[in-house]
Write a structure and sequence with these properties.
Polypren_kinase, transferase, membrane, nucleotidyltransferase, 362 residues, endoplasmic reticulum
Length: 362
């Protein structure tokens, strides 16, 4: 087989794979159709594309006018106008008041999306500027701080939207890395080139680059667990897509991965001289930094819950009680991170921190 023939065969195979991917998502099918599965099991039989359009753009006046004038309400789900008197009587805090009565739920989601895109843009600029100067581990921690900047303030604002966004982004990451590992044109080379400066030894053990995937999973799992344990509300096409209460454990993954892991790595690598007795390379200094960062993160999350005025799923304690609970949770997470030398701590430790925060009712 000549080089030209091999190239043509590779492009034909890539086209075949792309057609299969698009077909499995959008082509209606009872068993393999992703769209049909989501429609039946998550959206109460509402069509996913129309549901998503209303979910994001339903509060824009021009969008609503176009939908109504073109008689597309059978397809695109428009949110009902809120009852101001009813909403104002609810004790839900000033952030919820702004979201429901001033900005609008759908517009709030657009603002959160724009905010996250701005953080990603700034983070990528910083990473590209650091690449020629700093080592791989320092550059990778920028992505950890990006996760904190994006999700720590926004999870309480609309937990279900953030949970949905994390699910979609995780699916996209898995698909893109599958294409990269399969060396399918035209996406494989640009993806491999972009990821190359941030790959460490763990990523070289197999064909899949796992670091960014496990970073995302570590941030998402505690939020998903909290959403699964809290009561749901909502009416119409948003039935089950509202969470009336909030809890600190929602942000356990962001705090653990974004703050704790980054602090442990940055401090441990530079000042970690005292190693744990059981080996594994973890240092006492790094573990202390991890615990301190998680402790401060839990206190900040508790303060944001109070400042925002969201109803809490548990009774809010005094500052001293909260600090003692946060210290215990941070210590347990730090000890787990120090002991866990063979597994991926970006996944296991957030679950441990979520369990502690949930059981301690921070």
């Amino acid at each position: 087989m000549t080089y030209e023939q091999a190239t043509w065969r590779k492009w034909l195979y890539a086209l075949y794979v792309y057609i299969l991917i698009i077909g499995s998502v959008f082509v209606p099918h009872r068993w393999i159709g992703v769209k049909d599965f989501v429609q039946a099991n998550a959206l109460h039989s509402y069509e996913p594309v129309g549901w998503a359009l209303g979910y994001l753009f339903g509060d824009l006046p021009k969008f609503r006018l176009e939908v109504v004038s073109r008689n597309l309400e059978w397809w695109i789900c428009l949110p009902s106008r809120p009852d101001i008197d009813e909403l104002s009587s609810l004790d839900s805090g000033w952030v919820q008041h702004l979201r429901h009565t001033v900005i609008g739920d759908a517009n709030t989601r657009l603002l959160l999306s724009a905010y996250c895109l701005a953080v990603i843009t700034i983070g990528l600029i910083v990473v590209l500027r650091l690449s020629p100067v700093y080592e791989v581990d320092t550059r990778r921690k920028v992505f950890h701080f990006m996760m904190v900047a994006m999700f720590a303030p926004s999870i309480y604002v609309d937990p279900t939207f953030v949970g949905l966004a994390l699910s979609i982004v995780l699916a996209i990451f898995l698909l893109l890395d599958l294409l990269r590992a399969s060396q399918l044109p035209p996406l494989s080379k640009p993806l491999a080139t972009f990821l190359a400066p941030y790959v460490d030894g763990r990523d070289l053990r197999g064909p899949v680059v796992i670091s960014h995937i496990f970073l995302l999973i570590g941030c998402a799992i505690p939020l998903w667990l909290s959403l699964g344990s809290l009561p749901r509300s909502g009416t119409g096409y948003l039935e089950g897509w509202e969470v009336p209460t909030r809890e600190v454990s929602m942000v356990a993954g962001v705090i653990c991965v974004g703050l704790g892991d980054a602090a442990a790595s940055l401090i441990g690598r530079r000042h970690g001289h005292r190693k744990w007795l059981w080996g594994g390379g973890k240092s006492l200094e790094g573990s202390v930094a991890f615990a301190l960062a998680v402790f401060l993160g839990l206190l900040a999350a508790h303060a944001w819950l109070r400042i925002g005025g969201w109803p809490s799923s548990t009774e809010l304690d005094s500052l001293g009680t909260t600090a003692s609970k946060a210290g215990f949770c941070a210590s347990m997470a730090s000890l787990t991170e120090a002991v866990l030398t063979g597994g991926n701590d970006n996944v296991v430790v957030p679950v441990v921190l979520w369990t502690c925060a949930k059981s301690m009712a921070i």
